[in-house]
């Protein structure tokens, strides 16, 4: 059996390699790593295979193939296949990657979008193991998958980033979950740093790692909002006791305005050094003696805290809750987890409260997929504080689903509005004018 593991990031490849070390990906005659670059402008982003120290990760696989090289000039993130072309595409890939007629097993991230979704379609009879997507694994399935697809899933392996919290991704298919213990990932990242010949740095001053994301590039917030968040990140680093910051842009982010960042750091009384964009955040955590890590709601915050036992601070979560106007957005669960843990750090029963919140938010995001979790969501919303209900849930979704806290209009009001909407505009105009006069008279205290 040949095991094809498809990843788009160094973090995903490292998670798969750590799962192999933990014995969670079974036995295979050959392990093939399928890499692709999903950055908005892949030509200016370092390939996973060329990242310093990547050889330590790639050594867990017998060989590496580049999906982007096969599909070029089409991008892997845009790759789709029509049903009539599936047999031809499978023959093409088997021949191009020297798979022959061997049985193929898939290990995939993000099965709801290309390239993983398309690989699953091309190798239509292959069994599938789901690979963790960081904190998104604790959220619901974004796009419902068929029962036939669910039957192909052997389980999920995930990096245990929140101890004791169970993933919800694809839980509607009754799959098994297998956590990768932190020590496997931590040891692997040590190997990565050794392979890259990265020295352990004796920082000259208390140093914090500040991580950028590419929120504006994803159109989740404006560039001005993202710049303001980065300024607040420097302030948070100062609060951690840092006098110096290492700033690490997200690998998929467009070029950052370096001059503005340097100016913002100096205003906060901090020295700033830009991290080599080819290095992973985890490599910096291994090689530096940090006082903490600061970011928006990056999975790297959970990695820093759980894997490397570092203090963390999150910035801008209030802005992000307002910006995720599509409640189903997959970023909502990572945002919720990071925000709640930050606000309630050290409090009693934190994990149980987080578990109940995560289930409730996931149900409100995908009520049809997680219909079996409605009672848990209702129980949580019946006792949650008004502050947390307003922070983590939108009134429109609560109303639509008829959950505790719903503000539903009376039946008479709904019937009257429905009747008015059926009246032609020309006939309804006098009625609207009369209602406006009544409201104006009431406002003046007259009748």
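Q: What amino acid sequence fits the structure above?
A:
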């Amino acid at each position: 059996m040949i095991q094809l593991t498809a990843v788009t990031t160094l973090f995903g490849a490292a998670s798969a390699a750590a799962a192999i070390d933990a014995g969670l990906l079974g036995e295979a005659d050959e392990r093939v790593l399928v890499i692709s670059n999903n950055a908005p402008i892949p030509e200016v982003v370092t390939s996973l295979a060329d990242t310093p120290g990547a050889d330590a990760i790639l050594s867990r696989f017998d060989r590496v193939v580049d999906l982007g090289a096969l599909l070029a000039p089409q991008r892997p993130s845009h790759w789709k296949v029509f049903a009539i072309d599936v047999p031809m595409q499978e023959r093409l890939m088997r021949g191009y990657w020297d798979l022959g007629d061997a049985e193929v097993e898939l290990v995939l991230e993000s099965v709801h979008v290309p390239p993983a979704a398309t690989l699953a379609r091309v190798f239509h009879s292959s069994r599938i193991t789901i690979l963790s997507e960081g904190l998104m694994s604790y959220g619901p399935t974004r796009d419902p998958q068929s029962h036939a697809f669910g039957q192909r899933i052997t389980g999920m392996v995930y990096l245990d980033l929140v101890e004791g919290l169970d993933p919800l991704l694809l839980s509607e298919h009754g799959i098994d979950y297998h956590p990768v213990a932190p020590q496997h990932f931590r040891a692997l990242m040590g190997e990565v740093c050794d392979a890259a010949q990265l020295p352990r740095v004796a920082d000259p001053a208390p140093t914090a790692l500040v991580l950028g994301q590419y929120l504006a590039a994803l159109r989740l917030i404006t560039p001005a909002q993202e710049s303001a968040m980065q300024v607040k990140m420097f302030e948070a680093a100062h609060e951690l006791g840092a006098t110096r910051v290492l700033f690490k842009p997200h690998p998929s982010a467009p070029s950052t305005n370096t001059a503005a960042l340097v100016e913002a750091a100096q205003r906060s009384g901090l020295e700033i050094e830009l991290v080599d964009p080819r290095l992973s955040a985890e490599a910096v955590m291994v090689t530096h003696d940090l006082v903490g890590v600061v970011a928006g709601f990056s999975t790297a915050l959970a990695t820093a805290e759980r894997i490397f036992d570092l203090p963390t601070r999150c910035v801008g979560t209030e802005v992000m809750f307002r910006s995720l106007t599509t409640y189903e957005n997959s970023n909502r669960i990572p945002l919720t987890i990071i925000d709640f843990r930050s606000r309630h750090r050290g409090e009693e029963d934190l994990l149980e409260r987080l578990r109940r919140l995560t289930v409730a938010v996931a149900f409100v995001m995908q009520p049809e997929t997680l219909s079996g979790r409605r009672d848990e969501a209702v129980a949580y919303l019946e006792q949650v504080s008004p502050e947390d209900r307003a922070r983590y849930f939108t009134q429109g979704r609560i109303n639509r689903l008829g959950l505790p806290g719903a503000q539903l209009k009376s039946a008479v009001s709904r019937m009257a509005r429905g009747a008015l909407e059926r009246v032609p505009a020309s006939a309804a105009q006098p009625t609207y004018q009369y209602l406006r006069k009544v409201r104006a008279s009431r406002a003046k205290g007259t009748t």
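Q: And what stands out in the fold?
A: Residues 324-401 form one domain.
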